[in-house]
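hey so i finally got around to running the thing on that chain from the lab meeting. sorry it took forever, my laptop kept dying and i had to restart like 3 times. anyway pasting the input first so we r on the same page abt which one it is
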Amino acid sequence: MPRNQFQRMIFAFITVVITVHAYVFYSLYVVNGNTLMELNQTTSVLAAINKQGGIYMFGMYLPIWACILIEFCFAFALENLIGSPASFKLASRIFNPAKHHPMMFETAIICATVGIMCPAMSLIAAFLYYPYYMGFNLFTLLANWLKLVCFNFPFAYFTQLFFIQPAVRVIFKTLFKKDIEKRGETEMPSGPQNEQEAIFDIFRRIDEIQEEIAHEHRRRKALEEDVKKSLPIK
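ok and heres what got predicted. didnt touch it at all, straight out
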């Protein structure tokens, strides 16, 4: 897992790239696909988008790549400034990395990240995709925001927990394979500074505890044999 700021930025970059593309597809095809095809009288979502001149965003029609780029910039900034640090602190309040199973701690971080990023990005999307041609109304904005949260939260939770985060970790381990192997040969700092260091520290402590248990088992077995040898034969 990431051990410095550069690796954390790469980890966040991979996460946001996959997530933004997944959400754009989900929003266009799953949530609004039928509406787009009906309004533009087409048989495919892509044809409907091309017919209307792009995706409606912030009072104008933009191509898909521009919408993806805009959402990526917002998501990447939020993930690095708020999402990742805050999710680690929230998870640490409930689970102790030194005592609880690493899978529980990692799952808590993912859930906390979804709980922070989903409402935040949905609020940004409510501003970006607001129908400004009808005039602006704060209550309409809030209603649209709650609607987006209801649509996005289940999708965010299950995709992040079961698909996106496992895929991101596999990609990251492949990119930094040599660094991770080298890191395993050196001792980690006593106090984890972030999510990834905490998880790595947990696995290291588990290995140490298993080795101590095995050593204690061998010592007790040797002691029992010495006691048996010292007992008089009847």
